[in-house]
Design brief:
Radius of gyration: 20 Å
Structural class: alpha/beta
Strand content: 15-25%
CATH superfamily of the largest domain: Dihydrodipicolinate Reductase, domain 2
CATH architecture of the largest domain: 2-Layer Sandwich
Number of helices: 9
Distance between the termini: 8 Å
Strand order of the largest sheet: 3-4-2-1-5-6-7
Order of helices and strands: EHEEEEHEHEHEHHEEHEHEEH
Mean pLDDT: 97
Number of domains: 2
Low-confidence stretches: none
CATH class of the largest domain: Alpha Beta
Largest sheet: 7 strands, mixed
CATH topology of the largest domain: Dihydrodipicolinate Reductase, domain 2
Number of strands: 13
């Protein structure tokens, strides 16, 4: 790839697109030229980058001529339509949607885990599901050390994972409740303020949701672990930003809390916050806006053989989306 690439951000005005632009600037990614692409209704707006106001252009079939790298975050249907067009123009696509994640010809990458898979890309690279990425930041180092067989997990997912309209919905509902007004809803099937919804994504015939099955399916691909099993309940909570996951993992080999902590303290992109006596453990409020994920509440699982419980939290707009995409782009420059 060009060491100073022409970069496009597709879905530039969305929550993840905005974070992609900020992350490119914050990490001093060597952008020679930045093109911002979005729907026709956003065309003409400007967004800040390196002290300049960059205009947003309408996404069209001709948007990728001369573009070296495109970061997509505009939804699966847009990715399916435009990512192959971009790749045919010689542009490398890093796609944040679920459109290509399970395609055997498309690498699904968390750089701290499987950056080597990038060498096999054919123009499109997939960013994993946000909850999966955050969970694997803690699970994968433990898997390498002790051999993970399966996990049981529950997620606590922030509304920003649904997008800007969901953030506005939570803000509006809190205001309505405080003011004694009727609560209105547009994004979620039930009130999200002061509530939790055991429903993220659409339900499948097996009773799980698509989001819940992503942990097993994507986890197998990212970790190169075809027998990995995950039973997950994904829950939407009234938190603005940062997802958390409670994990019970069963390993092939005996695992102690002390040995697990030693492994986790050496893991890249991960902070250990684990001192319950001082009420110190990862909090979504603290992880919001941070690149690293955090893990804590480690304890032997009393219901599983060779089991370990832990709690991991991370900013799903960053490690779960924009940061991971930019890290992939950084790895591509090294190839």
């Amino acid at each position: 790839m060009n060491p100073n690439p022409h970069v496009a951000v597709v879905g530039a005005t969305g929550a993840v697109g905005l974070e992609m632009i900020k992350t490119l600037e914050r990490r001093r990614f060597p952008v020679d030229r930045l093109t911002l692409l979005a729907s026709a209704r956003s065309a003409g707006k400007t967004l800040p980058f390196r002290g300049l106001e960059v205009p947003v252009q309408e996404l069209t079939r001709d948007s990728f001529k001369g573009v070296d790298l495109a970061l997509f975050s505009a939804g699966g249907s847009i990715s399916k339509q435009f990512a192959p067009l971009a790749a045919r123009e010689g542009c490398v696509v890093v796609d944040n949607s679920s459109a290509f994640r399970m395609d055997p010809e498309v690498p699904l990458v968390v750089p701290e885990i499987n950056a080597a898979d990038l060498r096999q890309h054919r123009g499109i690279i997939a960013n994993p599901n946000c909850t999966t990425a955050i969970t694997l930041m803690a699970l994968y180092p433990l898997h390498v050390a002790f051999g993970c067989k399966r996990i049981f997990a529950s997620s606590y997912q922030a509304v920003s994972g649904t997008g800007a309209r969901a953030i506005a919905e939570l803000e509006r509902q809190v205001r309505q409740i405080v003011n004694g007004e009727p609560v209105t809803r547009e994004v979620y099937p039930h009130q999200i303020a002061f509530n939790v919804l055991p429903h993220v994504d659409t339900f499948l015939p097996n009773g799980y949701t698509r989001e819940e099955m992503k942990m097993e399916n994507e986890g197998r691909k990212i970790m190169h672990h075809p027998t990995f099993r995950a039973s997950v309940t994904c829950v939407r909570v009234p938190v603005y930003r940062a997802h958390s996951v409670a994990v019970s993992a069963e390993f092939e080999r005996p695992v102690s809390v002390e040995a697990a902590l030693e492994v986790l303290r050496q893991a890249p992109g991960l902070d250990v916050i684990d001192d319950p006596a001082r009420c110190e453990y990862p909090l979504p409020l603290s992880q919001a806006g941070k690149d690293n994920c955090a893990v804590g509440r480690l304890r032997r699982d009393c219901a599983l053989d060779n089991g370990l419980c832990f709690w991991v939290s991370g900013d799903q707009l960053l490690k779960g989306a924009a940061l991971n995409a930019v890290q992939i782009a950084e790895e591509l420059l090294k190839l």
